[in-house]
What we know:
globular
Amino acid sequence: xxxxxxxxxxxxxxxxxxxxxxxxxxxxxxxxxxxxxxxxxxxxxxxxxxxxxxxxxxxxxxxxxxxxxxxxxxxxxxxxxxxxxxxxxxxxxxxxxxxxxxxxxxxxxxxxxxxxxxxxxxxxxxxxxxxxxxxxxxxxxxxxxxxxxxxxxxxxxxxxxxxxxxxxxxxxxxxxxxxxxxxxxxxxxxxxxxxxxxxxxxxxxxxxxxxxxxxxxxxxxxxxxxxxxxxx
Length: 232
């Protein structure tokens, strides 16, 4: 299923969402300028490689800040056009409303917290992997989780491929994002049984970790707001 747009207007200009998309675009076009060997070095330097984090030598050589940097920089790198385009589409469709509700500064913090949580879960579920992890999808999964809590009834115009045909339908966010999460969770569970530590693939558990973090963050904040209203 491919989201084209949501039927849910935001009240403010999504400055952070637009800025993140612009930064991802700049980094992606920089990647395209590199040859294959330089790109591999770039990914190993700025991507998050799980096995590195379980090596004492890694922390001794990089220091704490040097070890944390790839967890952040990896959120702005992508492995190809489909990876980049899909992530930016999801962020564009769902990010503006979440930013509108959280506010610009809180949304920026929220985005990075979800991305970090996603990266950490991926690292701990793939401790022996020597493949650099890149992509904004963990952080964007957090945005999807927040959207599910904040706007469960919002309609999402969705393109559904059926064999060689395409069908346009409007789905409630609860259905669209609920189905998306279930697919990520079961794909992640299957990946644990057929894991190949030497080749790339989709970081399913990063998606799960980001989504759950987004749900938890938003649910807690919404609950706090209700309690403040009640106590008033």
